[in-house]
Amino acid sequence: MAAAAISTISMIDSNMEVDKLTYEIFSILENKFLFGYDSDPKLSPACRENRNFSTPFAGNKNVPAGKIRILSIDGGGSTNGILAAKSLTHLETTLRRKTGKKNTHIADFFDVVAGSGTGGILATLLFTRGKDGVPLFTAEEALKFLIENNRKISRSSSNGVFRHVFRPPVKVFGKVFGDLTLKETVKAVLIPCYDLTTRSPFLFSRADALEMDGCDFKLADVCGATIADRTVEVKSVDGKRKITAVGGGVTMNNPTAAAITHVLNNKQEFPFANSVEDLLVISLGNGESDSGTGNMTSSPAALVKIAGDGAADMVDQAVSMAFGEFRNNNYVRVQGNEIIVGKKHMIKDEKKRKSIAIAEEMLKQKNVESILFQGKKLMEKTNLEKLEIFAGELIKEEEMRKNSILSPVVLKQSSSSPRTSSATSLSTISSC
């Protein structure tokens, strides 16, 4: 009996070791989001020192610190990134219309972006500084890039259902980014992959790149790593670090929890962010599987797909519940329901049109809210309406900051000394 108990304990320990990332993320979600900082005895000294940073201003409505604006973009999905790209084009167009500023970029209205897989490509395109100081791509240009380079970035399996990267298209990304690195991004950027060398998730982070040796990587390599389904070796710019990467979708298809954790633990850059009421988050999905239930277990690729979609939904459900009463205004999830399409052979232009049409149809669908362990609930508002409302929240936050003497964000520009705590914050994520 004792031996069996020891064996069971050993098995539990083994499983926890394998899934440390999920365990850590949900522990943080539970302790810091649901119950607040006071209930967490494991806060680092730096976090304990800064957790009440905004207390002196709490009763003064004339000096609000503002909310940290987070954009999270899923990898892949049934639209292979097109739904998220279309969501962003609509959001950017809405922001331009409502502000009257024709040159507005997505990056102007967010403080943090996290993107996995094709979401990582979008994040990099939209948040990299160009020669004129503005982001390299508009949302419309990023959408066009994904469509034009779809065959170079990914290909379909023989049954036309699952898409996967067949080789990192570094040349494609090299033409866009050249020798630009993480340091050239305009806001806080987080892009995941999985490092087989350390057997742990790895987050490419702008904050780490600016502050620590061996943490700055070429953006072309970052994009190649986050979408790779075969191992690819990536070296830091200074050659001090090398990772053996596979795509971010393997371990973090929905990076929302990682982005939120990054903000709440990075007091140097986000000193006033103490709880979910201090955040404004939009999470963009890329469409649920259109494979049909009959083929869901027909191949290893199908099982990987199920695992990735399930993990993304679980993150959405946990985050949604963690926001509680702030869920309607402070957290928005855009995701498309299943749309069955024909599997006939199509010419290139026809495929482009169909991909865009599917994404547009998903945006017109009613938004689906995930409820932890209770499935999904169809909401009254469509994805487009949700995006419209969220654009209004972003504009209100931007206007509020113009009248505030406090800045909720103090992004690192350079550093001559090492940080006292990692901005990536999760001890189980491989960090520099």
Provide a quick synopsis of the model:
With 432 residues, this protein is α/β, with parallel strands linked by helices. The chain has one domain (68-152, 167-339, 350-403): Cytosolic phospholipase A2 catalytic domain (3-Layer(aba) Sandwich), CATH 3.40.1090.10.
Explain how this protein is built.
The chain is an alpha/beta fold and 432 residues long. The chain has one domain (68-152, 167-339, 350-403): 3-Layer(aba) Sandwich (Cytosolic phospholipase A2 catalytic domain), CATH 3.40.1090.10. It has 15 helices and 12 strands. Strands 1, 2, 5, 6, 7, 8, 9 and 10 form an 8-stranded mixed sheet that branches. Strand 3 and strand 4 (163-164) form a beta hairpin. Helix 2 (20-34) crosses helix 11. The chain is globular and about 50 Å long. The N and C termini lie far apart (44 Å). Mean pLDDT is 77; it is low at 1-18, 32-62, 155-166, 342-348 and 415-428.
